[in-house]
Amino acid sequence: MKLLTDFSLEELKELMASYKEPSFRAEQLYLNLYMGKDFAEMTNVSKALKDRLVAEGYAAVGVRILENYVSKLDGTVKFLFSLNDGNIVEGELMRYKYGNTLCISTQVGCRMNCAFCASGLEGLKRNLTAGEILGEVIAANRFDGGDLTDRKITNVVLMGSGEPLDNYDNVVKFLRLVNAEKGLNVSYRNISLSTCGLIDAFDRFLEEDIPVTMTFSLHAALDEVRSSIMPVNKKYGVEKVIDAARRYFDRTKRRVVFEYSLIKGVNDRQEDAAALISRVKGFPCIVNLIVLNYVKERGLTGTSRKDAYRFSGLLEKAGVAVTVRRTMGADIEGACGQLRAKYIKNN
Ligand code: SAH
């Protein structure tokens, strides 16, 4: 099946031209698609055109909300999205003072197999297309009562399931689609791309000139520790990741983020803090500490809150910018991939 949200406005115009439709049709269709409407709901598009699209195997909607869980504590919404082939991915809508951030998935599963993450438990099933990744944003915007004049999703983070740079072409196309002015118009500055550090793909990404916030999942500054929890480190070690972050800063002058999930007894020791400090000191970055979310199948435990603050204190004292991320939606569950794993098991 071909998905119409995979098309940019330009591409829709070409398709409509090939159908000998007037050019305003493309924009009409585009607006409907970005509102999340299926063919039946597109009242301003002729039946003949819709029939032709269906007959030629086009789908208008690629992502549907299968389930949603709303946190009573802070309004966070966890989504289970279903794709047209029955696969499931998850996303999360978090509410902040400055706007709403949607965390989305880029792959069904993941092949990075980090020792603490639920997304990689069963490997990679498939990549999402650009239009499917976009479909998550469209669905969440609609869920929250938004449209294209009143957009409810102001920020997007690529931190759900999957490794964005392992699905390079689709992710780059998605970034251009979600940024498009007549569409959801999410500014690059409001998008965070998180990577475990696929440096060759990252260097390609640098050349695209898409100035998103870059987030590197570091999780350890000592190679032996990082290799023990992130297999990718055997190819792209700590130094390569930090050098890449420097290149990003040099080119964009945007401060990069290092993600660091604190795992009890693994990467939260004094020597881990010391190694981290010596690696990043003086470099315009921010270390984002988060206490590891417990994933039953993985058997690693998060550092206690108290020890997390001790760790952050060490960084602060050394002049490294650091935050300890607060937990959101604690009552609705969720580290990456956990909800999906649970759903699949129970259904
Ligand atoms: N593959 C990308 C983006 C998806 S994961 C990446 O590696 O950056 C988003 C973030 O959540 C990453 O920093 C990842 O390491 C982290 N993460 C995964 N499982 C986690 C868990 N159980 N607890 C805390 N953070 C986790």
Please tell me about this protein's structure.
Helix content is 35%, strand content 20%. The protein has 347 residues and is α/β, with parallel strands linked by helices. It has a ten-stranded mixed β-sheet, covered by helices on one side. Helix 1 crosses helix 2, helix 4 crosses helix 5 and helix 6 packs parallel to helix 8. The chain is elongated, with a radius of gyration of 21 Å. It binds S-adenosyl-L-homocysteine. The site of S-adenosyl-L-homocysteine has 17 residues, from strand 10 and strand 12.
Give short descriptive properties of this protein:
347 residues, alpha/beta, binds S-adenosyl-L-homocysteine, 10-stranded mixed sheet, elongated, 14 strands, two-stranded parallel sheet
In a few lines, what is going on in this structure?
The protein has about 350 residues and is of the alpha/beta class.
